[in-house]
Amino acid sequence: AQQWRGVIREYAERLPSLEGAPVVTLLEGGTPLIPCEHLSELTGASVYVKYEGLNPTASFKDRGMTAAISAAKRAGARAVICASTGNTSASAAAYAVKAGMTCAVLVPDGKIAMGKLSQAIAHGATLLQVEGNFDDCLTVARKLAESYPVELVNSVNPARIEGQKTAAFEVVDALGDAPDIHVLPVGNAGNITAYWRGYCEYASPTPGVGGEVLAPLATRRPAMWGFQAAGAAPIVLGHPVDEPETVATAIRIGNPASWRQAEAARDESGGLIDSVTDEEILEAHRLLSSTEGVFVEPGSAASIAGLVKMHRAGRVPSGATVVCTVTGHGLKDPQWALRTADGGDVEPVRVPVDAYSVAAALGLDG
Ligand code: F0G
């Protein structure tokens, strides 16, 4: 059998805007939709996680980046720029290298996870820490893209949303239809916008490549549930947050670029956008790693935290099919796993080179 070909080739007929573009790909997408027994038992629903940490640069951004960099290459761009809380920069840097372009990234001062920083540096991006937050970085990146010959590859670039909608296609392809509820973390709000577009296109006749109308592959669309971190919850509060704060640095965003589109996804789908505290995020992070075997970064755990919060509020219908996107891999920002529930640090137990001592330390004696 042929290996997975990346989202542009796998879904070419549903990506008419990329027709004729040279395909710059690291074979992203095709990520597993993992059934979660413990979460299902806890909530009374059939819960799956879409494990986007298994993309080439270990986050969902690769789906959008293959599209944005391919479109930029078609347009003759030689340099790209982005603002990022980390994952976008890692992805942009990798795909720019693959395309033979240069990449500049603007990241917030001191608030990006080590794994993401290493990736951007390893792939040769020019990285600048801006003395401000993500929203400031995006403002500056947009200005530069207007005035200089650099292509902006943040999710305000329409190709990004096109690429990212393929995750919804994969969910329907795997389940045979749309789930009842789709849960995801919300930061700059591009991803909730992209999933909603993907679900809508799969549930209605949709123009594809060459204007050919594609038949629907789903009979329905899910309710979209988005979760922001409580310290960075502008959509929930109804106004921008000047100094967003959360342990989930990926979604530490006070003024999302796709704010209106996120509200449209919520309202058209009969869904909701709510917030979860840092404590709820870290609790969900532990729950997912210790009961399901799935390791994610804190920002990704916001979707699980949201599901648990809604379950506790009695809002998860019994027997519903629920898909939670977990957006980035745990190795991006591994320090959180080394915290104990009471906030201390986990220390490895030291033992001598001796089977009896090891057995005793493991509780295997007697
Ligand atoms: N989860 C992770 C791991 C992310 O990195 C991001 C966004 C989100 C969720 C939120 O997605 O912005 O589409 O609502 N990260 C961006 C970045 C901002 O720069 O890497 P969104």
Automatic annotation (TrEMBL):
Residues 24-328 form the Tryptophan synthase beta chain-like PALP domain. Pyridoxal 5'-phosphate binds at residues 87, 187-191, 327. Gene3D superfamilies: 3.40.50.1100. Pfam families: PALP. GO terms for molecular function: L-serine ammonia-lyase activity; pyridoxal phosphate binding; threonine deaminase activity; threonine synthase activity. It is an enzyme of class 4 (lyase). There is a cross-link at residue 143 (Isoglutamyl lysine isopeptide (Lys-Gln) (interchain with Q-Cter in protein Pup)). The modification N6-(pyridoxal phosphate)lysine is found at residue 61. Pathway: Amino-acid biosynthesis; L-threonine biosynthesis; L-threonine from L-aspartate: step 5/5. It comes from the Bacteria. The keyword Repressor does not apply. Its cofactor is pyridoxal 5'-phosphate. Keywords: Amino-acid biosynthesis, Lyase, Pyridoxal phosphate, Threonine biosynthesis. It catalyses: O-phospho-L-homoserine + H2O = L-threonine + phosphate. GO terms for biological process: isoleucine biosynthetic process; L-serine catabolic process; L-threonine catabolic process; threonine biosynthetic process. Its EC number is 4.2.3.1. Catalyzes the gamma-elimination of phosphate from L-phosphohomoserine and the beta-addition of water to produce L-threonine. Belongs to the threonine synthase family. NCBIfam families: thrC (TIGR00260). This is Threonine synthase.
